[in-house]
User: What shape does this take?
Amino acid sequence: MHQQDPTLSQLSLFAATEGMDASVVKVAELSRHEDAEKLQLLFERLSHSAFRSRFHLNGKDKLYIQNKGWETVRIHAAEFVARRLAPAIIPNDGKQTPMRHVHPVFIAQHATGCCCRGCFEKWHHLPKGRALSVEEQAYAVSVLMAWLHKEMDG
Ligand SMILES: [Zn+2]
Assistant: This one.
């Protein structure tokens, strides 16, 4: 079911085709290399939160991922993180991520505490009030992708 992750050159080509920001591609690329043990510890912590644990993909979300493929979903996650989570000042912080099933990445954001800077600070210990670095954005994307893979496999 999973597509193979394409190489960087394929990803860059894809980005160019889509008219995408190079920094988003960089975030997506870096997000492949998060420490598996660190992610496992995070998911262990999240599993103790009744609120976080109640978020799951529905059939529509799963079909969307199957149709779009993992690479596109990774790029979407990088874009959402760059635009909606990374800025130092987010006027509607705490309300920027829909809880409805608009996009599977939004559900992943709620499930993993990557929905707003308040939750991101609480769960991931990266302070709000400043922009997230490329590496920190990549970390968030890796968390989102790992959660999505768990949901699809589970
Ligand atoms: Zn939040």
In short: Residues 94, 115-116, 118-119 surround zinc ion (CB under 6 Å). The chain is about 65% helix and 0% strand. The longest helix spans residues 134-153. Residues 8-153 form one domain.
